[in-house]
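Hi Y.,

Following your request, here is the sequence exactly as I used it, all 375 residues.
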Amino acid sequence: MKKILKYMSVGVVCVAAVLIILEFLLECLYGIPNSERAKRAIPINENEPYIVQIASRDDYYNGVYAVKDVFSGLGDYTARIDANGFIEPSKVHDEPDRTILFLGGSTTECITVSEEKRYPYLVGRMLEEETGYAVNSYNAGVGGGTSHDSLDTLIHKGLVLEPDIAVLHHNINDLIMLLKYEDYCYTKTGESYDFYWMQTAGSNPIGNGLKARLKNVWKQLFPSISGRIAALNTSKALPLPQNMQIEYDQEVVFSKFRRNLEMFISICEINDIRPVLMTQANRLGDEPDELIRQLYEACGGYELGIEYSEFWKLYEEMNSIIRTTADEYDVLCIDLENNIENSPEFFCDMVHYTDEGSVKAANVITRELLKILKE
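Below is the corresponding structure, written out as C-alpha cells. Let me know if you'd prefer a different format.
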C-alpha cells in the first residue's frame, strides 16, 4: 500500500511538472492565446481580489506621507477583498431589499479603520436596524482613486449590482491630480498615465501567463501569508518628493471636476439609480495644527510647491462645487465637512478617519440616506 501511494505521489508530481513545462514551452513558441491583435486594456482601479491584508497602521501613514515615526502605536488593521475587488463584508444578503454602492478614494475605502467600523459597511447595518430592510452596502473605495476612476468602476462593475443608491465621495485626490496635470487621463505633455496602455497579448514577457495563474492559486490557498507579504512590500516609507512650482488654471481644475460629478449623476439617473454626492470631511482649516502642518510639509506640498493656505482655499472650493452641483441637479448632498468636527478624535491625519470618525460619518450618512431610502 505504501509503495502504491509513493508511486501515485510521484506520478502526480511528474504530471504536474510536465504540464508546467508544456505550458511554458507553448507560451514560448506561440505566446498567450488570442495574441493575434493588439488590445487596448484599461484596467479598473480597484483593490486586488482575493487579498487579505494585515498590516500596521503606523507603516501605512508613515509611508503615505514619507515621514518617519510620526505615527506610532496605532496598531494593525485587516482588509479582506472579495472576488470582485470590493472590501468585505459587502454582500451580506443573497437577496437584498436595498443595495448601496459607495464610490471614492481612501476616505471611502477606510482601509485602516476596523473592519466592522468602516462606514460603507456600518451604514448598511444601521439602515437595516432603522428600516427592517435587508441592505447590502458595497465599498468600492480605493486609495488614491479619483472621480474618473469611480466612473469607470460604476460603469464596468457597479451597474451589474443594480444598486438603488450610489454615493460618490471625492475631493483631495481629484484636486491633486488636476493641479499637477489638468487632466485625468493624460499629462500636460500628452503622455498617458501608467494605468492606460496598449497591451499586446503576444508581447507579454515569457512566463507571465503561467506566473499569473500560479500567483492566483497562491493567494487563494494562503490569503493571510500573501496579504502580509503584500503589505510589507507596499508599506515602506517613500522618499521625500522634490518640490516643484506648478502653474495651473483653477477654472480648468474646477470645471473638469464638476463635469465628472455631472456625468456620475447622469449615468445613475439613466440606470434608475439614486445618485448621492458627499463633501469630504477633514482636519485642515485656516490655522492647521502642528501635525497637519508637518504632514503637508513632509509630502512637499503634495509635490505642488504651493503654500498651504492656497491649497486649503482650492480644497474648500472643491467641496463647494459638490454642494452647488447637487443643488443644481436636485440630488442629495451629504455634507460631511459641516457635520464632522475638525478634531484629532475623528481624523488620523488630514482626511483619513479614525474608528471614531468613521462611526461618526456612518451616523451622518445613515440619517441622510433615510430621507430617500423609503421613497
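Residues 194-208, 234-243 have pLDDT under 50 and may be disordered.

Thanks again,
Q.
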